[in-house]
Amino acid sequence: MLASFFIFMTSCQSAQELKSEQYFVEGYQLYTTHCSNCHQADGKGMSNLYPPINGSAALADKAFLACIIQNGMTDKIKVGGRDFNRPMPPNKKLTDIEIAEIVSFVTMKWKKDSTFTDIETVQAALKNCKVY
Amino acid sequence: MMKLNACFSNLLAFGLILFTFSNCGNSERKLPILGERDWTKKTVDGKEVVDTVYNTIPPFSFVDQKGDTITEKVVENKIYVTDFFFTTCPTICPVMKREMIKVYNAYKGNPEVMILSHSIDPEHDTPQVLNTYAKDLGVEGNQWLFLTGQKEKIYEIGQNSYMSTAKEDKTADGGYIHSGAFILVDKDKHVRGMYDGTTDEGTQKLIADIETLLSEYKK
């Protein structure tokens, strides 16, 4: 009984790990295609034109991340004490799962989140987006 | 005698090879002149000779990020690198600017080298917008100019003279399509090279070719 529980736990754990890895890899591809032109491959942004993601406080707010990835933003944003006020274009073609993968990638890569961000979290966030 | 002759000719051949080699080494590599060329016939000393007319950048008049009118006079006796972009471009422009920064840093302060970046969205990219953009990019001074002006004129010089695609296309991300090329122009306004401005490889080749071109003028 205890043994089967143990097996269940470990298999569950590795399924979770597998999914995290999957989201990270997919997210990396999507990030490279849709984000890295401006935010750069290392996530450090570009001079005072495009803000860094790596090191940004916004990484703690997954709902905000999901919303601006989908809808873009026009308001200014302060990152690391610097003001950025260039509009970010929307990415209307990205699906919920793709946004979840990008959010997973950036938070795991630059905030050291241990697991992925699931679609449900993204879908809930997208229903309640403000205009940023 | 025969033997001596053979020896002599061997020496001659060897000398010739050596001469050829050293000649090769001495004559600097030259960049090609790109673009369509034309021929004209003219009469020199009563003889008809054919003269090649190379693709030449025509006179232009645009406005830079400080609001000053910029004509071809600004690049008089200079070589320059040029490209086409727009400030709200989400695709290749940020990459091109990241690469162009490398060229800018490599030749900062060199009075023989300039950079001219043309906006293909002049309605949005006013001198003020370009000025903010340049500052945010970290560009100061007059060595790298961001040009705006009459849209038709910008497209015309882009397509016809710099051989670079630049036009409106509503279906493209951002609304415009343009090539990611960096174009190298010499002091006689001839295009001497075109490079992929979206890769480090292309940019490094450009920097190497700028060296080659500059050395053409060191006499």
TrEMBL record, chain A:
Residues 22-110 form the Cytochrome c domain. Keywords: Heme, Iron, Metal-binding. Pfam families: Cytochrom_C. One of its GO terms (molecular function) is electron transfer activity. The keyword Endoplasmic reticulum does not apply. This is Cytochrome c. Signal peptide: none annotated.
